[in-house]
Amino acid sequence: MDLLVKNDVAVVVGGAQGIGAAIADAAAAEGMCVAVLDIHPSRQAAAEAIAARHQVKTCALAADVTDAKSLDDAAAQVRQQLGACDHLFCAAGAGSGKFGFPFWNLEPTDWPRVLDINLTGAVRTLHAFREQLMQSAHGSALLIASIAGQIGSPTDPPYSAAKAGVINFTQCAARDLAAHGVRVNAISPGMIKTTLNKSVWQAWNDRQPADQQQDYESWGDEKVRRNVPLGRWQTPEDIAAAAVFLASPRAGNITGQTVNVDGGQVMHA
Ligand SMILES: NC(=O)c1ccc[n+]([C@@H]2O[C@H](COP(=O)([O-])OP(=O)(O)OC[C@H]3O[C@@H](n4cnc5c(N)ncnc54)[C@H](O)[C@@H]3O)[C@@H](O)[C@H]2O)c1
Fold it and tell me: Which pLDDT tens digit goes with each residue over 24-61?
């Protein structure tokens, strides 16, 4: 299916690694020009690899979702280097790095940084790009939430709460931007092998007695076996395929939705 996005401009925040990098690659595979925004220096190599692989224009820009000015500066650079953003993808995220079950394993002081990156970070990102999206003929924004935001996951409460906030903000933003022809959706991924996912395992494993510790693969495989009807991990490419479809005009009548790409772990009515 032609997704009708050739030569559109995609911005992937958190695009240097993991799910964001896969979204950037999938957007380029559909012929979009891609700006890779991240705090991580590997953004440059990611943008160059995508340009070489798909023969599209790309750029790499430093941007920190906890800093509104850095996002505003990056948005101005995107406009200058590639043109106004048509499709915004916000994949930047981080956990507390601690095992938060029960919740009093964490201090209340562990919360603000996690909320700032995952929730307010998404809000800042949409603030920075909203005008460009409104100028697009078919603008869209896609926020990466998490099934942790739907089930009170017994791992990292501030992360879960932040992702629940992202799901709700998706609805607020979708209502506000609909009148401007911009759609806003979210994806809740399940279990994907990335740096972030491994840090959840690390935080858990560090708190286990020696005889109950597990390596990363066994820990994840067991969770998947127990919780996922389709019985397999998700991949960054699974998320990217859904993200690029939701961004495209083929999903032109879908807004305010959170789509779970989680092998059926959480099923909506
Ligand atoms: N991996 C999973 O199992 C899983 C499950 C559900 C949701 N998610 C969500 O998917 C998204 C991508 O995570 P991932 O698993 O690919 O992790 P990852 O650690 O591989 O990638 C996260 C990216 O975000 C960037 N980032 C972090 N803080 C930033 C900041 N302040 N400003 C700009 N960029 C920043 C990192 O440098 C990195 O490139 C996150 O929102 C995460 O919460 C992941």
Answer: 999 999 999 999 999 999 999 999 999 999 999 999 99
* CA dist list (Å): 96 to 54, 56, 91, 235: 36, 36, 16, 23
Query: In this predicted model, what pLDDT tens digit does every residue of 155-201 receive, in sequence order?
Result: 999 999 999 999 999 999 999 999 999 999 999 999 999 999 999 99
Amino acid at 47: A
**Strand ordering across the sheet containing 140-144:** 58-62, 33-38, 9-13, 87-90, 140-144, 183-189, 258-261
Q: Does the CB atom of residue 64 touch ligand 1 within 6 A?
A: yes
CA–centroid distance, residue 144 to ligand 1 (Å): 9
Q: What pLDDT is recorded for position 153? A: 85
Give me the residue spans of the domains in the chain.
Answer: 9-196+236-261
**Token representation of residue 78:** 């995107």
Q: How many CB atoms lie within 10 A of CB 37?
A: 35
Ligand 1 pocket member 140 (CB < 6 A): no
Give 203 Cα–ligand 1 centroid separation in angstroms. 16
Q: What is the CA radius of gyration of the chain?
A: 18
Ligand 1 centroid distance, CA of 162 (Å): 13
Active-site positions? 159
CATH superfamily of 9-196+236-261: NAD(P)-binding Rossmann-like Domain (3.40.50.720)
Strands 33-38 and 258-261: unpaired
Closest ligand 1 atom number to CA of residue 17: 39
Torsion of CA 246, 170, 187, 106, to 10 degrees: 160
